[in-house]
């Protein structure tokens, strides 16, 4: 008999089904269609491993699907199928009727590989059980332990049919072929997963009653985004998501840290410090990395880390030993921008031509195709210098603290002199200092994040522009919706993004506009509840629908921050 389900419900069309530590995730384009199995160890684009379809007499079975953090259950007239995560790299499928059809996938959803599903020779047979090892992609293998049922290989699939009452299959995906089959006890395994989730759920701080379901869904996104420490991951680490962008980036982790900080501060600090373990001799941090040894250094991400540290320290103090380890690394990260990214030597660091190291990759300000000095970058650095001053004082380095405060004041003055033109902030081309006097992107308004640090007149003018041009029913558009360059699903040329939203809301709150900050938080959380229904990479600013990758960790983290800090 199927166990009683948890109250927490998961929609796998909007949130990958996985669990803490697992390198496997399962999604579906619809709650009646096949399941897509993702191998999170592979780099995105190469990580879609296989499709699992339920059939009867060779025909696809329409089914109803429901999921909790512990188990997926598909029901059809032919019987029931239960699927759950087993260990770090496997999943179990139990069928009491439908045939289980596994198909290898190419890099795009639903597209089969050009060759048949190949079988590497049967490794061993035990009574009626057959272990099959299937080459899935590059160096990964799928190991099918058919614990009960009949396995048959066809031209393009591996089909496992119930033998007697059911079929039971353990599938593991990895770079090595394990020789032992772990014990599989379906009911006991599901019960253990429920207990694991309930233990994590108990850490979630209280939220407004009207957002309880959305908070649990967000907390689940955070829980299942973790992979265990391995290789270049020095601690258990949150990935951006486990469906497509299966890695960690050097600013996403900051929002992850704040999203879990009130429930598990130790884990929050570990997320925050993660890229500093990868830092090079210049102070630069990688753009993206994942275990065991994949790192991308072509670009980096903006220095949002000072702001994050200030926010973390509002929640709880970091211990002295951590600050002593971290302080020189944050110094190097700050100096990197002045030593390596001030290409015209004017004291104002710049981004590269494509803008990807801004985090706002294709914002329309970068359409000029030149290296830009931008007000957001200088604003991040002002806050980072304030954070360094705070840490220096805690470590008894009073002279260094005073020096960092002085540098912050100088950078703030430079921000005004360099970027404030005709009552608005603009972006200027490195070297020539040419600028567009009427930018249509959100990016020039990011100095709002400075809050009360920003001159009151400038703050008020920026807020007025934000309200009149960028604030929609659901949040802050990344491009003026009236702009000719606006596109609803175009990355930073229109959509609402979680990181910019929380940075601006935090600045509004600290700048005396808590009323507007709370309204933005409410609109964001209502959008999740009523329009998007899940945590996407970004959101349509006019209709509130989710865009791009599902189960996105920073979108979930920002919702939780809003619920705790703004809406309680």
In short:
The protein is of the alpha+beta class and 568 residues long. It has twelve helices and 24 strands.
Features of this protein?
eight-stranded antiparallel sheet; disordered N terminus; 2 domains; 24 strands; 568 residues; 12 helices; alpha+beta; Glycosyltransferase; seven-stranded antiparallel sheet
Description:
The protein has about 575 residues and is of the alpha+beta class. It has 2 domains: about 25-175, no CATH class; about 205-565, Glycosyltransferase (Alpha/alpha barrel). The chain is about 30% helix and about 20% strand. It is built from 12 helices and 24 strands. The strands form 6 sheets. Strands 5-6-7-8-15-12-11-10 form an 8-stranded antiparallel sheet, covered by helices on one side. Helix 2 packs across helix 12 (about 555-565) and helix 5 packs across helix 7. The radius of gyration is 25 Å and the shape is elongated. Mean pLDDT is about 90; it is low at about 1-5 and about 105-130.
* Mean model confidence by pLDDT: 91
Give the uncertain stretches in residue-range form: 1-6, 107-128
Rg value: 25 Å
In terms of DSSP E residues, the strand content is: 15-25%
CATH structural class of the largest domain: Mainly Alpha
Instruction: Tell me the span between the first and last alpha carbons.
Output: 41 Å
What percentage of residues falls in helices of 4 or more residues? 25-40%
Number of domains: 2
Count of extended strands: 24
Mind telling me which CATH architecture of the largest domain this is? Alpha/alpha barrel
Structural class: alpha+beta
- Tell me the strand order in the biggest sheet: 5-6-7-8-15-12-11-10
- Enumerate how many helices there are, as a single number: 12
């Amino acid at each position: 008999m199927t166990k009683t389900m948890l109250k927490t419900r998961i929609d796998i069309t909007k949130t990958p089904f996985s669990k803490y530590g697992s390198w496997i995730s399962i999604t579906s384009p619809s709650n009646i269609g096949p399941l897509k199995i993702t191998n999170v160890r592979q780099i995105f684009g190469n990580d879609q491993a296989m499709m699992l379809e339920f059939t009867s007499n060779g025909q696809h079975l329409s089914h109803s699907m429901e999921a909790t953090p512990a188990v997926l259950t598909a029901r059809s007239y032919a019987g029931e199928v239960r699927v759950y995560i087993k260990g770090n790299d496997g999943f179990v499928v139990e069928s009491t009727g439908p045939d289980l059809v596994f198909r290898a996938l190419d890099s795009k959803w639903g597209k089969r590989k050009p060759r048949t599903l190949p079988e590497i020779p049967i490794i061993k047979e035990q009574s009626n059980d057959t272990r099959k090892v299937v080459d899935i992609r590059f160096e990964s293998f799928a190991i099918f332990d058919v614990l009960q049922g009949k396995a048959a290989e066809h031209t393009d699939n591996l089909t496992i049919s119930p033998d007697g009452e059911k079929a039971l299959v353990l599938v593991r995906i990895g770079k090595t072929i394990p020789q032992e089959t772990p014990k599989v006890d379906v009911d006991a395994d599901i019960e253990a997963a429920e207990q694991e989730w309930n233990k994590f759920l108990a850490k979630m701080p209280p939220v407004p009653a009207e957002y309880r379901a959305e908070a649990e869904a967000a907390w689940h996104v955070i829980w299942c985004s973790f992979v265990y420490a391995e290789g270049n991951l020095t601690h258990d680490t949150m990935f951006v998501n486990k469906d497509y962008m299966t890695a960690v980036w050097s600013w996403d982790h900051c929002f992850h840290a704040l999203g879990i900080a009130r429930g598990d501060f130790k884990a929050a600090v570990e997320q925050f410090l993660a890229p500093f373990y990868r830092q090079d001799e210049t102070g630069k941090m990688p753009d993206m990395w994942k275990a065991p040894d994949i790192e991308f250094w072509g670009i980096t991400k903006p220095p949002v880390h000072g702001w994050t540290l200030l926010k973390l320290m509002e929640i709880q103090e970091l211990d002295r030993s951590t600050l002593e380890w971290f302080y020189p690394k944050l110094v190097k990260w700050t100096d990197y921008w002045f030593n390596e990214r001030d290409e015209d030597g004017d004291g104002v660091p710049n981004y590269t031509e494509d803008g990807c190291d801004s985090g706002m990759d294709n914002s329309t300000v970068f359409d000029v195709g030149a290296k830009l000095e931008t007000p957001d970058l200088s604003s991040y650095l002002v806050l980072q210098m304030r954070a360094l001053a705070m840490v220096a004082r805690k470590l008894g380095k009073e002279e260094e603290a005073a020096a960092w405060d002085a540098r912050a004041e100088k950078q703030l003055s430079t921000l005004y002199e360099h970027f404030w033109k005709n009552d608005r902030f603009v972006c200027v081309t490195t070297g020539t200092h040419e600028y567009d006097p009427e930018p249509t992107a959100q990016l020039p308004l990011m100095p709002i994040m400075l809050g009360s640090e920003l001159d009151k007149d400038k703050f008020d003018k920026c807020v007025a522009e934000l309200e009149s041009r960028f604030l929609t029913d659901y949040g802050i558009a990344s491009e003026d919706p009236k702009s000719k360059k606006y596109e609803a699903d175009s990355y930073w040329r229109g959509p609402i993004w979680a990181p910019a939203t929380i940075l601006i809301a935090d600045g509004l709150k600290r700048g005396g506009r808590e009323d507007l900050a709370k309204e933005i938080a409410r609109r964001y959380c209502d959008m999740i509840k009523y329009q998007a229904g899940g945590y996407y990479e970004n959101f349509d600013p006019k209709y509130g629908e989710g865009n791009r990758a599902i189960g996105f960790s920073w979108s979930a983290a920002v919702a939780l921050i809003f619920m705790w800090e703004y809406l309680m």
